User: What shape does this take?
Amino acid sequence: MTDDLRELYQEIILDHGKRPRNLRHPEDANREAKGNNPLCGDRLTVYLKVGADGAIDDVAFEGRGCAISTASASMMTEILKGKTEAEAHRLFETFQEMCTSDEFDAAAHDIEDADAIERLQVLAGVRQFPMRVKCATLAWHTMNAALEGEEKVSTE
Ligand code: ZN
Assistant: This one.
């Protein structure tokens, strides 16, 4: 990664960490789950409104956490809006792999989500810091739990 790119990624994370998007509790949400990362102290609740057709009409979150967990939740809400449940599951799995595997090859993944994967790349730098991987993936684990009908998820 070039220094310019690293700096840009840093800026995007700081911006989302400071001014999180979709930090609210939608009244018409029909799925929700709480996520807890005791190692860092990140706690959040993810709310989803899933339509009868399986499309995610709205996604938001509330909670407190470090800049990485907040930025990741904020970016996730932007990426998932308008996706289907199946796409959200696939993105969750892809993002997990991006954050944990050095061999992740974006080009080998579903082209349909090239845009989302490019955006997630910003956070995938955490794989160099294993403690931070849990911060970056907490919102995604929580979103996945909400879709699976589980109320709570912990990274422990
Ligand atoms: Zn954290």
The longest helix spans residues 130-148. Strands lie at 31-37, 42-50, 56-64, 152-154.
